[in-house]
Amino acid sequence: MSDGALKTFAEDSKAWPFEEARKIVKRLSKQKEAAPSSPIIFETGYGPSGLPHIGTFGEVARTSMVRHAFRVLTEDKIPTRFICFSDDMDGFRKVPTNVPNAEMLSEYLDKPLTAVPDPFETHESFAQHNNARLQSFLDQFGFEYEFFSATECYKSGQFDETLLTMLRNYDKVMDIILPTLGSERQATYSPFLPVCPTSGKVLQVPMIARDVEAGTITYKDPDSGEEITTVVTGGNVKCQWKADWAMRWVALGVSYEMAGKDLIDSVHLSSRIAKALGGKPPEGFNYELFLDEKGEKISKSKGNGLTIEEWLTYASPESLSLFMFQKPKTAKRLYFDVIPKNVDEYLTFSTKFPGQEPKDQLVNPAWHIHGGEVPSGQLPISYNLLLNLVSASNASEPEVLWGFIKRYAPDATAETHPELDRMVGYAINYFHEFVAPTKEFRAPTDLERAAIEDLAKRFDESEDGLDGQGLQQIVFDVGKHHEFEPLRSWFTALYEVLLGQSQGPRFGSFVELYGVKETVALIHQKLNG
Hints:
This protein is α/β, with parallel strands linked by helices. The chain has helices spanning 3-12, 16-29, 54-73, 102-105, 126-140, 150-156, 160-168, 170-177, 183-186, 241-252, 264-276, 308-314, 317-325, 339-352, 358-361, 365-369, 383-393, 398-408, 418-435, 446-461, 468-481, 488-499, 507-514, 516-528, and strands at residues 40-46, 80-86, 146-149, 192-194, 207-211, 216-220, 227-231, 237-239, 254-256, 259-260, 286-287, 290-291, 332-333. Strand 6 (216-220) and strand 7 form a beta hairpin.
């Protein structure tokens, strides 16, 4: 497909990354100059107060999809940059419960995160440890981004000009924020948080005086009572959260940043502050939050929900990217039980891609996951089918599963199908961690026993080489013959009696993969056991 044709389809595509990218194109169309004089900045923000969680990855993945959609719409004629920003100058407010040496960290409360020792003892600071972990995850997925540290931006002077602008517009910023605060907080609020020269803590104190010409603020030290005057530049202060966000947008010239639904009010206030500073707030949208198995919001400090490492132990990176792509404005449970469905849905989307019309390809999640370059080839077996094969064979080694797979797909090998080999390993890991401990076999009822014995007999008498569809028909016929109502209860009985679970893939496909003789042996084992 030519770039021109691709752009034409993209301009009308209903895929949400294109809808978001069109906002930026519209934004640019309102500017006087024909093309922007500097790159379009996409940004995500990350608070390194706890270990990086999977939601952080999700924001980077989704923003990358919007950036790619924008590049398609503009035919790559407008340069772009993607900044992953770490708020590592924030004060350390709470000790996470999921880190070693937690008791040691309590004495560093309120200090910048880059001044808190690393409890893992691998980096100079806790922030550097968490920043490094985040970057390693993002690098593993091949994201194109630039990593920015708040500490470096403040101390290097990169924010100085905008900080002085905020000082000049101090009253405007206060007029925006104060009505949103309670009376007690109003009395102490300031958009500037000075870093105490003696304790090193990030202080939340009111301002006594300001000198715009000198670029200074004056405050009272909460410990000594002494009045201290400091410049707002060079890393001597940082900004309060909403003011900081706005200041960063203006200083870096951010054109696009998405945020969670819990930050809707913050986005609104920060946008007003950005305008007060003479800037333009970025485009973006508010995505819904990820929930853990209890329906609670995932939190870095709690360490609940899934980590990126955990997902990648049991499933492919592409399946995780699919989870992030699907319905970003809908709250979703992010727990282990969502993994199999996402793996198989990704396989379905990628298999359909080559045969789709161009306009349909742009709606296919696989196109966005792979930046338009969807790998060719398809896997002959689903993830759920592999899980059932592991269950029936009780396999712990990939070689055992490959013995069955080669009977089902004779030309497939670990060398010719590396993605399938990878999925075999994922399935073994997932089964032994989550499926095996929860399996509950039950004895069949008299009706079920008679039907399952009949099924074994018919399998024994079936012609050689029947495919999954033919084997499925035998299963179906047995259920109808023994008058199961509804027929679904027959399949449920098979799964519960033979596999110890209430549902599974098409039983005929499972038999084709596992083997007819092996399935008959499994039936006799469970009925006689």
